[in-house]
Amino acid sequence: MNPWEGLLYGLSIALTPEHLLAALVGALLGTIMGLIPGVGPVSGAAILLPLTYVFDPLTGMIVIAGMFYGIMYGGSTTSILLNIPGDAPSVVSAFEGYPLARSGRAGPALGITAIASFIGGTGSVIVLSMVAAPVAEVAVLFGSAEYFALTLGGLIILARIMGGSITAGLLPLAFGLLLGVLGEDAISGDARFTFGVREASQGVSIVALAVGMFGLTEILRLIIQKQSTPYVGSLRWRQLIPTKTDMKNSAGSWFRGSGIGFGLGLLPGPSISLSTLLSYRLESMVGRDRKNFGKGAVSGLAGPESANNAAATSSMIPLLALGLPFSATLAVMLVAMQVHGIQPGPQLVTTNPDLFWGLIASLLIGNVMLLLLNVNLIRVWVAVLRVPNWILLPAVVAICWAGVYTYRLSWFDLVVAAALAVIGFFMLRYNFQLVPVLLGTLIGPLVERHFRQGLTAANGDLTYFISQPIAAVIWIAVLLIVVGLPLLRWWLGRRSRANPDPTASQQHPSV
């Protein structure tokens, strides 16, 4: 059957009462888990894994999938309201969402987030149903050289375009790379930079990094600078609806973010986190309200949120078409499939079309449920801001500690989170960026692994990494971006100086 026929067939399966209830339960549980810093999609999927043993395979998969993209939205809610990211992908949501909340626009910020999540997830599902087979054929061609080019090249590009001074970006990036290599070597098993601490062999938990450096840092800043969390009174329904200007500024960002998220979701590694970072940086350059970045630009919130859910959905393609889980959450889904004797791969669509198309269709239904669910619960989430600081902040810290500890049941993670909170506070105080730390920790181990695997495959021949056709194309693209962007900025700056805007002095008299 063609993709449209397959999607209609999947809808006929997913629209049964049992599967509709499974999608609703998954979306609701995911949203609630996302509100708890430290839980994240991996822990959530692991908690729900036993459900797959009770239900039939498709029902269990629908619950876990609903949780997966539901938690993407829930994690963003705490980022927007309290500047406390639930997990790594929701870090970017705080950049513009939190300033919006502090200015009294928490309701519209959450409304834009809900719409962005719906557009990114729904659009990605539709494209997913059409390109799963062709993408699988291309992905088979990728080896260590290609993945090394993607990871290292992507790291170079992101570090180059993050903005700010070179020092403000490169030093935190180097710190992140050091954090990424701490722990047990994945290949040799040797302990690196653990200094005899046995618990450090597990490495730095990404939950401890996200919660400590981006969440506890904010709480520390609020306490030391004696600032308060944003106060929002009782909101009426019309106050939750984004304005026409908000919708206009967000429209292009939703679709740009969806495209970025869908593309990166096909790749191994922390694709969801990278898609939000790349989308945010793109919007800072082309967004309609880019002049307000850092002060509450809705395009800087809409783009990453749509990229977030689009990447979460498109990451299903490698799992279903190749049997390759490119994230820990998808690995849990793979385990659930294997428990029921189902082996995902190129033949899944023919051997088990009910599960393949039913799961894809359930993603479409789940996104609709997620939109309706969270739009109606916005006032509940915003009510959190009316809790006094002396109650709210200790409660948030306790939840953060609980989330960090329960992720791996390690006291070492608590120490790391506390240390990173202090380091993050001083980095912000001296105008260093925090995002490159996250980038280095996430991508560094992937670069090392693909490099070592490539050296083994090529018997130590370094030319292997540039002699492969696809890898060579990737490196050429990286070179063009790294060299071309500064040249383009220089040319545009020279052109603007040659042709100054006569109204600039009226619009910006202080310049």
From TrEMBL:
Pfam family, one: TctA
Transmembrane domains' residue ranges: 109-131, 138-159, 165-183, 204-224, 260-280, 319-343, 355-375, 387-405, 411-428, 435-452, 464-488
Membrane recorded as keyword: yes
Keywords for the protein's UniProt record, in alphabetical order: Membrane, Transmembrane, Transmembrane helix
The DUF112 domain, residue ranges: 20-439
Lineage: superkingdom: Bacteria
Claim: Nucleotidyltransferase is one of the keywords in the record: no
PANTHER family given in the database record: TRICARBOXYLIC TRANSPORT PROTEIN
Protein name: Tricarboxylic transport membrane protein
Organism of derivation: Enteractinococcus fodinae
Lineage, opening ranks: Bacteria, Bacillati, Actinomycetota, Actinomycetes, Micrococcales
